[in-house]
Each structure stands twice: as C-alpha cells, then as structure tokens.
Amino acid sequence: xxxxxxxxxxxxxxxxxxxxxxxxxxxxxxxxxxxxxxxxxxxxxxxxxxxxxxxxxxxxxxxxxxxxxxxxxxxxxxxxxxxxxxxxxxxxxxxxxxxxxxxxxxxxxxxxxxxxxxxxxxxxxxxxxxxxxxxxxxxxxxxxxxxxxxxxxxxxxxxxxxxxxx
Length: 166
Hints:
By secondary structure, the protein is α+β, with helices and mostly antiparallel strands. The chain has one domain (10-165): START domain (Alpha-D-Glucose-1,6-Bisphosphate, Chain A, domain 4), CATH 3.30.530.20. Helices cover 27% and strands 39% of the residues. It has helices at residues 20-28, 30-36, 136-144, 146-165; strands at residues 10-16, 43-49, 56-62, 68-79, 83-91, 109-119, 122-132. The protein has a 7-stranded antiparallel sheet with strand order 1-7-6-5-4-3-2. The longest helix is centred in the last third of the chain and has 20 residues, at 146-165. It is globular, with a radius of gyration of 16 Å.
C-alpha cells in the first residue's frame, strides 16, 4: 500500500543585516554556532565532529532551566555560502539516536534545509524542517508544535542577530 500522507513541513524565514558569507559561516563553523544556537538562555557545546558532507556532529544542549540533552547531526550538503542540508536527532551521551526526551511521539529524524540568499546589504535565510520516516502520530505531533517551533527558532535567530552584530 502506498503512503499518500502529505508530510508536514515547518518553514521560517529571517533577514539578517550581514553579508551572506558571514551568516553562512555562523552556521557552518562549530565554534561560531555555539555562540548563538538554541533558544534564549540555552547553551550548545559541540562535543565532536564537524560540518561537511558525510560528517556527523555530536553536541550537548543545556536549556535555560538547566536540563541537558544531546543531539546528533548528519550533514548531507554543505554548499558555501548558499545551502546546508542535514538530519538532526536527539542522541545519548555516546551519540546513539534516541527518542525525544520531552515529547512522545516525536519524529526521531528531522531533515533540516537552510538556504541563504544575498539580499541588498543583508541575507535572507529560509529554514525548512521535515520529519523523516515518521509515523502518522509523530507527524501529527510535529504539525501541532509549529507555533512552539516558531518561538524557539525566533529566539535562536534573535541570538544570531546579536552575534552577527557583535
């Protein structure tokens, strides 16, 4: 039987007052990414890995309330300065993919596509998030959380704006 469901896709755009190369590098350099990634009050620490096609990056995320969790990213495309494509998952301390620690059901793998477009004296960024190999229940949960995802990404983008201005 063919699956005829339409996958939910979360999309958010933001314009940054910085050149495209600068915005791309803030995403593609782990040390720069640590400075702004995550919602306000959180901190991301890259534990190992890099940002290149075929590479994985294992990180630790500390939320504003002190809760910690790990993530694993597998890069598919790194096309400086225009595009990043990677799969993102929650992970354990050994970089094994695990279920989301705070939502059930939630997709185990999220495809992230980030496109950068030079626009006048700045950069237009478009981010798309799509569940990969998710069940109907996981996709429904994902679709129900889009308002929250907008808030989370907006907070990260506010931090990125401040980082780029600094």
